[in-house]
Write the structure tokens for this entry.
Amino acid sequence: MKEGKVRKTPMVLYNFMSLWRTIVLPRPVKQLQRKLCLWGWENRPDAQEIRRRVDYYYPSDATFITSPEDREIGEIKLSDSHSAYWYDLMRYLRAFPQKARIDFINGDTHENPSHSVFGKARRLDEKRGNVALMNLDRRRHFLKTEDNIPFLEKEAKLFFRGDVDAKENRRRFLERWWGHPLFDLGDTSPRTNTEWHTPRVRIEDHFRYRYILALEGHDVASALQWICASNCIPVMTRPTVESWLMHGRLQPGVHYIEIADDFSDAAEKIAYYNAHPEEGKAIARASKEWMEQFSDSKRENIIHYLVAERYLQKAGCYVNP
């Protein structure tokens, strides 16, 4: 069977490039890069799509709420943060006035704050407007995925390999469906001693299956991006958290197979799409097309700069065009 491929930036290269962008490169150069990146973006053929995404990540009508936790950008140090979050935020914020005061969620989003912040993810609740989304920890979440196995040539099962330890929803799913002939499930945690325990597998090994389980953890399901980018179908409950992927705009039956919150209909859903493979093929194609909108690096940079600019302007910071 044909092999797939998943590429992740080597950690040494990632750290080197991140340090270069956020610490070594002089700020006037970063400011010039921002100016050149945004030069004439309104005339791009995808300008309307850029506006739409910027307004999704941080709505123009969001009310800005300050907090005593706000700090000047220049005061937020790498040593105070998870490095991946700091690198991915400061690669853009370093191009703005360093006296501007901000706050950001330095890790997983357990709940939305009561004041305005930058964050990787936000809960889909009444406080979602308090979080301006940025693509943080992108090395982990946005992998370069190549799946060479056509959907109809994949094994018609739902596949899962992952750490179940301390993940209540994963534990409940395995308790309910372990051993079912339509599922190939396994707990890869080294701490487990249950019958569920299985060895870890490569991401590429998932591509042999039509359906991949993607359950939320502390916030978003970290595998969802590479599942959508493959020729497989994500199988998941309706999202309660969203990130740069724009989970709130994913449509069940179009971009993913939705299962009930108690997982009771999971086998029924897999059986249905096995009986209607062309419908499944269409979902796999649509989810892959959804991921293609994130492939233009210039456009992604423009959107990040515009989201940051909107946040800082709402915070009362004058931002030079």
The longest helix spans residues 297-314. DSSP finds eleven helices and 13 strands in the chain. The first strand starts at residue 5 and ends at 7.
